[in-house]
Amino acid sequence: MTQGNWWQRVGAWRALVQWGFFLWVVYIGVRFGMFVRHFESHGATPLVSRPPGVEGFLPIGALVSLKHWLASGTINIVHPAALVIFLTIVGMSLLAKKSFCSWLCPVGTLSEALWKLGRRLLGRNYRPWPWLDVALRGAKYLLLFFFVKIILLDMPALALAAFLDTPYWAVSDVKMLHFFTRMSTTTVVVLALLTALSFLYANFWCRYLCPYGALLGLASLLSPFKIRRDPEGCTGCQSCSRACPAGMPVHAKETIRSPECGGCLTCVASCPERNILRMGLPLWRRPLPVWVFPGAVVALFAVGVGAGMASGHWQSSMGYAEYRMLIPMAFMFGH
Ligand code: SF4
Ligand code: SF4
Question: Which residues are paired to 126 by β-bridges?
């Protein structure tokens, strides 16, 4: 017996959400590029409004902002959306697995497209030896530890406030734009290497190197949503384990509790038995409708960002005159 159509189509629904979000991020990037261009051209190009969503690309600054908020009780007004987006994504992981990675993150979407292309062209993806896989997976936790130590643990309150007052922080979004639009040779080489590795190995960046994903994976351990398998009806066919991009031994566990599980539902869609494998909640024995988890993912993101907007922690406090002065000088800060 096969699962219902909804479950089988969950991959298509996820792709729709992923690429819809990806296009939205590209739109934000282009719009921000036009905003910056206006100031770099000294007003020769039209002014467009600045999209605060671009601050989603400032997770390290958001970590500084978070500690500053915890230490002082005030939210940084230069890039408030950075903190709102960061807290939203961490909150999503606490409630709905590492779903940001597998449903919304534009880097995850590109990475997935690359390994799927690699699998199609080469007939397979590669896997490092098990001992190397474990060692490499540790790399992202080391990077996370490094950022947590220097920012959350070691950085004194005065240094936090001083950093958030610098012109560097004010134009950190512009510098992030330049990272993509004015790539150095080193950046091009590193990105080309990561692209090649992502083509060969499933989720290379996310699985081994992304410290943000490491943080979200740890937070996701507390999520009430978990992949749950009913051993009574399971035939042990192992379709789920073969399909899992995170390499989880789904067929051998009753509940997947790993920080590597992204909640992508690929295992569920691949199971030929009805209601044996599902994304479930504790104390809720009946199968949830398939739309509940994807709906929760999108709703949590919308609620988090909406709360930031509604509470006035979204638009930057920077005005036209400050941008006119700082953006043409952005290349001078931080070197
Ligand atoms: S266990 Fe299932 S939901 Fe988790 S990563 Fe693997 S395929 Fe995706
Ligand atoms: S795909 Fe379904 S039936 Fe097959 S091993 Fe996994 S849970 Fe069991």
Answer: 201
